[in-house]
Amino acid sequence: MSISIRPASILDSDAIALLHCNSWRTTYRGILADEYLDDDLYNERQRYWYAKIQMLKGNEFVLIAEEETAAVGFIAVLDKPEAACDAFIDNLHVRGDVKGKGIGANLMKAAAEILRATNRHSVYLWVLNGNNAAAEFYKRKGAVVEDSTTVIFGGKEVLQTRFVWRSLEKML
Fold it and tell me: Where are the transmembrane segments (predicted)?
């Protein structure tokens, strides 16, 4: 399996939306309301990514991982400093049939390299409680749990936990 990682463009918004939608439908079943996951999620994500990619500012970026020409994963990093961190991983998703093949780790490494090159040294993300595979993956990649909060997501109140990397070295 040969994977390439490159900056995403507006032309990738449909592929990213499909990856995002399918990932949520698989991962968040039982965590978020089924009605939300089964409704118009793809069109919602399509509109979201079309706008998000166009509105990236400053040092924000989205990277897409591809096998040949098929999108297999993506990571979005935003300038949303909180928790005394320099950046925020808004999304990291890998297509279900290729999980466990290092794509998520490679996307994180590529993101960490960009963060370092732009003089940013720490990053955080949120994981919905119940997404145990993601939580364990981030812990293996060196993240530490800092805090939790309750949010309304997809019409349902859910608990989310913040994972933080104070040093990007562990992501490399």
Answer: none
